[in-house]
Design a protein that fits this description.
The structure holds 2 protein chains of 2 kinds.
Chain A (H helix, E strand, L loop, with lengths): L4 E5 L3 H11 L11 H11 L3 E4 L11 H12 L4 H14 L17 H14 L4 E5 L7 H17 L4 E6 L9 E4 L1 H4 L1
Parallel strand pairs in A: 1-4, 1-5, 2-3, 3-4
Helix pairs in contact in A: 3-4, 3-5, 4-5, 5-6
Chain B lengths: L1 H21 L7 H20 L2 H17 L5 H42 L2 H7 L4 H40 L3 H11 L2 H27 L8 H28 L1 E2 L4 E2 L3
């Protein structure tokens, strides 16, 4: 595996769940023709994997801002203001204001905003492997462009880190090469 | 078969308790402390606000009953207040209020988190459910139950004494004197240990059923119902066994410890 960006088209939700669980180490083993590629991806990430979830993966008990800072504060034990400063930097680079998220209930965000919050949350932990979970699906063209801009910003900040897009259908991202074809995954 | 299920259940609770005790250091992490504070607010404040009238009412009821039905004097009325409120009714009533007011809400919240996929998102983000949810919840329930019990006892004993003073034409000062003469440090230790254990048990049961720990994947209404029922059963069982261990009697003296 020489590239940095891949996409994996999965046929069903259980397959997607199994892929995510394997990459994050919740499942020790994987099987199927794409197993070797997944093992290599996981090994190269050295347990530093973050997922930008399709629904943001946000907790309803926290506001959007606290959701964004949760993993980095939990794992890296960063102070709130240090983590907040970094989150502000990323949001500004994405053309968004932190005020769009501070104090807002996670349930009041649109699907795009939830995905954006989830993306920033994943980016804050500076992962070796960033997994994009169906981020382009069910969005309009403008919002898709927003997600593509997020990916570019991640690529610029961390040029040698890998990105895996996992989805039910292929996305027109020229830099993403297939990890396995849909027939192979089935 | 039933014994096997009960043994597996006890082993499950024991294992979870052991894991929680081994992971208490996670409370140093800021996000976990935030959950602890939030759970204490849910468990403690919600229950405390509902307690005032009920606690004072129970103290009053016990004193009124003792005075009129049992024709007791001041010292006997205070003794009953200590036996009933301080040792038994106080901790039991407090934990039942905790289960009804906060336990149901927490079990429902956890079950909803499970159904919405939030728990899986946490796991996939490398955040341990044990560290982030179970440890702060159990610590919060344990500490809150102690606070609620103390608060209940202060109100019930205080309310009971004021009513006694009115009913029996004795001064509150005299009743307080009886109280401090009759109440011992052991009563205090007994009630503190009991209320801590009650809170711990309720926290364990709620986490197990709400979060579906140990493969208990149930729907939200079922999780709440099981959490409440098993909390109350666990508390009553512990109460009986603890009384047996301390006083040597079980079921109000029907079963006695061997001499």
């Amino acid at each position: 595996m020489k590239g940095l960006r891949y996409q994996l088209i999965v046929p069903t939700r259980p397959v997607r769940d199994a892929v995510l669980a394997f990459l994050t180490g919740l499942e020790p083993n994987t099987s199927g023709p794409f197993a070797d590629a997944l093992v290599e991806l996981r090994d190269s990430a050295r347990n530093n994997v973050a997922i930008a979830f399709e629904d943001g993966g946000l907790l309803q008990s926290l506001d959007a801002w606290a959701n964004m800072l949760l993993p980095v504060m939990y794992h890296a034990a960063q102070e709130t203001h240090a983590a907040g400063r970094r989150a502000r930097g990323i949001l500004t680079a994405l053309g968004r204001k932190p005020e769009d998220f501070i104090g807002r209930a996670a349930t009041s965000l649109s699907l795009y905003e939830r995905r954006l919050a989830g993306f920033v949350r994943a980016m804050l932990v500076e992962p070796e492997l960033l997994v994009l979970d169906r981020l382009f699906e069910d969005l309009g063209p403008e919002e898709r462009r927003g997600i593509a801009a997020c990916i570019e910003i991640f690529g610029r900040r961390y040029p040698m880190r890998r990105i895996l897009y996992v989805g039910f259908s292929e996305v027109p991202l020229p830099q993403f090469e297939p990890l396995a074809s849909p027939e192979v995954v089935q | 078969m039933a014994a096997g299920v009960a043994y597996a259940g006890v082993r499950g609770y024991g294992g979870l308790l052991w894991d929680v005790l081994a992971r208490l250091n996670v409370l140093r992490r800021e996000p976990v402390r935030d959950v602890l504070v939030r759970q204490m607010r849910t468990a403690g404040m919600a229950t405390l606000s509902a307690m005032v009238v009920r606690a004072a009412g129970i103290g009053t009821l016990i004193i009124a009953y003792t005075t009129y039905v049992l024709a007791a004097d001041a010292a006997f009325a205070v003794r009953i207040l200590i036996w009933a409120v301080l040792r038994e009714i106080g901790p039991l009533f407090a934990v039942i209020m905790l289960v009804m007011r906060s336990g149901t809400a927490m079990a429902a919240e956890f079950a909803l988190m499970r159904e919405r996929g939030e728990l899986q998102a946490l796991r996939l983000s490398g955040i341990s459910i044990l560290d982030y949810i179970v440890v702060p919840t159990i610590v919060a329930m344990t500490a809150s139950n102690l606070a609620i019990t103390v608060y209940f006892q202060l109100l019930a004993v205080g309310g009971g004494m004021i009513v006694s003073a009115l009913l029996m034409e004795v001064s509150v000062y005299e009743l307080a004197e009886h109280f401090f003469a009759l109440a011992s440090v052991w009563d205090l230790i007994y009630t503190v240990v009991k209320s801590l254990a009650f809170g711990l048990l309720v926290g364990l049961v709620i986490c197990i059923h709400g979060l579906g720990i140990g493969g208990r994947q149930t729907t939200m209404p079922e999780a709440v119902s099981r959490a409440v029922m098993q909390s109350i059963v666990a508390v009553l069982l512990f109460n009986a066994v603890f009384a047996y261990l301390v006083f040597g009697v079980l079921f109000f003296g029907i079963v006695k410890a061997p001499a």
